[in-house]
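REQUEST FORM: STRUCTURE PREDICTION
Request ID: SP-0412
Submitted by: Lab K.M.
Chain count: 1
Length (residues): 123
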Amino acid sequence: QVQLVESGGGLVQPGGSLRLSCAASGGTFRGYCMGWFRQTPRKEREFVAAISGTGYSTNYADSVKGRFTISRDNAKNTVYLQMNSLKPEDTAVYYCAAAWRGLVTTIGEYNYWGQGTQVTVSS
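STATUS: Completed
RESULT:
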């Protein structure tokens, strides 16, 4: 059984930065594609970023390209989302997820999910 626990969310001003972390336990971490999704009451859960098991390949939603960076430290069983130049529209609950293989971007392809962490961008 894989458990994912997000941390690092909070309140930040527009233009500021946050780094989210997702600590994984169970399974073989380097064997999983890891992804970040976000959700607000007005929108369906949407893809943000993904990274392959080795960390070699990444994929980003167009809305965050150039501002967000996904990375992973397999020795620490942790995936990160560095968020820079934050905008109010980035406000959402951010979820960490794990997929069995590949580099995938859709909700249905992910097998395990964390509980989410709130990110609020406001002055």
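NOTES: The mean pLDDT is 96.
Reviewed by: T.R.
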